[in-house]
Amino acid sequence: MPSVTMKVNGKNVNAEVENRTLLVQYLRDHLNMTGTHVGCDTSQCGCCVVHVNGSSVKSCTMLAVQAEGADVVTIEGLADGEVLHPMQAAFREHHGLQCGFCTPGMVMSAVDLAKENPDPSETEIREWLEGNICRCTGYHNIVKAIAAGTKNMQG
Amino acid sequence: MAGLRYEAPNTVDAAIGLLSEVAGAKVLAGGTDLLVQIREEMIDPDLIVDIKRIDETRRIEITPDYVKIGAAMTGAELGENEELAAMWPGVIEAVELIGSWQVQGRATIGGNLCNASPAADSVPAIIASGAKIVVAGPQGVREIPAEEFPKAPGRTALEANEFVVSLVLPVPPKRSGDAYLRFIPRTEMDIAVVGAGVSVSLNEDGTCASARVALGAVAPTALLVKDAIDALLGSKLDDVTLEKLDKAARDACNPIDDKRGTIEYRTKVAGVLVRRTAAIAWERAQKQNG
Ligand SMILES: Cc1cc2nc3c(=O)[nH]c(=O)nc-3n(C[C@H](O)[C@H](O)[C@H](O)COP(=O)(O)OP(=O)(O)OC[C@H]3O[C@@H](n4cnc5c(N)ncnc54)[C@H](O)[C@@H]3O)c2cc1C
Ligand code: FES
Ligand code: FES
Known about the structure:
Number of helices of chain B: 11
Number of helices of chain A: 5
CATH superfamily of the largest domain in chain A: Beta-grasp domain
CATH topology of the largest domain in chain A: Ubiquitin-like (UB roll)
Largest interface: A-B, 29 and 25 residues
CATH architecture of the largest domain in chain B: 2-Layer Sandwich
CATH topology of the largest domain in chain B: Uridine Diphospho-n-acetylenolpyruvylglucosamine Reductase, domain 3
Distance between the termini of chain A: 46 Å
Number of strands of chain B: 14
Low-confidence stretches of chain B: none
Oligomer: heterodimer
Bound molecules: flavin-adenine dinucleotide, FE2/S2 (inorganic) cluster
Radius of gyration of chain B: 19 Å
Number of domains of chain B: 3
Distance between the termini of chain B: 59 Å
Shape of chain B: globular
Largest sheet of chain B: 5 strands, antiparallel
Mean pLDDT of chain B: 94
Strand order of the largest sheet of chain A: 2-1-5-3-4
Shape of chain A: globular
Order of helices and strands of chain B: EHEHEEEHHHHHHEEEEEEEEEHHH
Number of strands of chain A: 5
């Protein structure tokens, strides 16, 4: 089996994986980092969004071996110890989650949005979320949380 | 399910060598179709050849005579190239429609073409642009006109062990414009019920000097619609022309009935959509007179 080395949340990790292993399976099953969720098998739901070299990617559309040498950040890498990332704090503050299943992907997408567009309108936030599906359909509060989180990130 | 082999060669020749070595080997570009197909066990290849490390597939070359787009360029990357977006706005708007932000960063123009979905968004726009598909294989390099590339749902003109290296588009003459519109039931992230691509060049007096019209999702493959082109040539896009264009588009349709639309509905939408697309292409051509 090939071995793959990448940086995950700032730490170098190395493991042997089958070539067919998706990045999301590698994170969950090999590194036991189960914060990144799997909600579909068609790359549509967005629960699995992580950052690869700084931009958001659905980790089910990438093989682990393709992330060789990459810098990967997952939901576990956002908080600074006990202190939540401003986007996570905004989701808590504005009740941006119900069951929480979609939340890791929502938060990771939102953090990328805040970098691309520091002052998004509600419409822009909703458009941005086209690749993230919330089964509980709590979009209203998710959008509010992202607007607030984006502001907090600039502050 | 023997071990799947993964290779990421650096050259076109190495890629052809690998494809020739293992029967049923699959090319991997962005993986947004391929990895889903593997995961859903629709296919089970022994080897996948990642072409993204091959320089020729990863660049845009703009010369006075042609524009060459690497097959493994993503929608997001193509959208960032302002020169390209000014020349072929319709092609760019079509590739940028592919998926959400996270998918746009991975899905490639070559992958959209080679996956050969009848509803693939970039294909009508590529056909309308008059592009040639540059294909490399054991017998060397050949160019295929874009409209001859898709052969059936999931099947292309690629022969065994060939792959697409790049797409070559002409540099549009003065007073040219192109556009792509798709019609989908939702606002985003859905499969086109109809997609229409139109490119036109106008004479100094505003009449149509040349045109190409292509439709997606209304037949087993995207189509170049000859009668629609004839309707446009020489015209100023007046009401009579629009009526002829509408009819030519409807006549070209051979769609399926599914949950997204009946045959009747798709056919009607094709006529309307092609009118709207032509109007946008025209407006762009009129603006671009410098
Ligand atoms: C959530 C989601 C939304 C989507 N939305 C859209 C949409 O709105 N519109 C749309 O048209 N599509 C959509 N798609 C489908 C898909 O993203 C596109 O078809 C995309 O362009 C495929 O490109 P890729 O680089 O990911 O291809 P891959 O998955 O890497 O490859 C696709 C196929 O083409 C072959 N291939 C790839 N490159 C080459 C090459 N250079 N030479 C020879 N063969 C090659 C592969 O072997 C495979 O069979 C969506 C997919 C997802 C997951
Ligand atoms: S698990 Fe990746 S998009 Fe659903
Ligand atoms: S909070 Fe339940 S899926 Fe979004």
